[in-house]
Amino acid sequence: MPREAPHAPPCPPPSLLRRAMTAIGRGLGPNGRDLLRARAHFHAPLPPGPLASQRYVVFDLEATGLQVSRDDRLVAIGAVLLRDMEPVAVFETLVHPGRPIPPAATAVHGITDAMVQSAPPAPEAIAAFLDFAGDAVLVAHNAGFDRSLLFMEEYRGAPAVAQPILCSLALSRWLDPQEEDHSLDALCGRAGLVIPRRHAALGDAEATAALWVRMLARAAARGVEDLTELCRRSRMQQVIAAAAEHF
């Protein structure tokens, strides 16, 4: 049986991260992949306590495209706050990306240039999102993309994300390694969940939140007691960091 990788080191102070990112950024060429690679292995400390006692904010981001390191930008944020494993509040905003939205991206999420014309820019939208999240643990499906997008917006002046970010995709792969498809559509299909607003940020966040609650219950049934153990057994933080290579 292969040995599991050790838990990732704690995140250094935000001031140190920002200095490191600035130094890296000065050497960037036409893309930000070097920055994302350097930033990907920093993970905020995980809070102690039982899985079900944590506050989670499950979120989804929509963008102008998937090439985060090549200037694709944030266009929408949707989030669900879970307390005692129940949804208690939601957050949703469009974001002005500061560049045109390609037709191919609009075809996926339906967001047009006209729709974001009066939307807040990324620094303002992310600040509002972080106010909503407070000290909750953040969760996204395929979090490597969402973290990368937030890190690049941070480099451009948005607030730094101090909370740990976990990945429902990585957890699904650990829970069901025999399954080939761990996309949000496939997970919802197997769970019998309907996504009324697929590819809308809030719609996807709501679906991911429902899946997250179910997956945590399954992890607890396997003897996982806290987030540190969850990340160790699923190699979640290593999986998230590796995903940064692709955006």
Folded structure, characterized:
This protein has 247 residues and is α/β, with parallel strands linked by helices. The chain contains 10 helices and 5 strands. The chain has helices spanning 14-26, 33-40, 103-109, 122-133, 143-155, 168-175, 184-191, 201-221, 227-234, 236-243; strands spanning 56-63, 74-83, 86-94, 137-140, 165-167. It has a 5-stranded mixed beta sheet, sandwiched between helices. Helix 5 (143-155) packs across helix 10 (236-243).
Give the mean pLDDT. Answer: 86
Describe the main β-sheet briefly: 5 strands, mixed
Net shape: globular
Radius of gyration of CA atoms, rounded to a whole number: 17 Å
- Give the SSE order as H and E letters: HHEEEHHEHEHHHHH
- End-to-end separation in angstroms reads 31 Å
> What is the fourth-level CATH superfamily?
Ribonuclease H-like superfamily/Ribonuclease H
CATH fold title: Nucleotidyltransferase, domain 5
- Strand segment count: 5
Strand order of the largest sheet: 3-2-1-4-5
Quaternary state of this entry equals single chain
Architecture (CATH level 2) name: 2-Layer Sandwich
Please estimate the helix content.
40-55%
Structural class by sheet pairing and helices: alpha/beta
| Share in β-strands | 5-15%
Total separate domains: 1
Q: Helix tally?
A: 10
Poorly predicted parts: 1-30
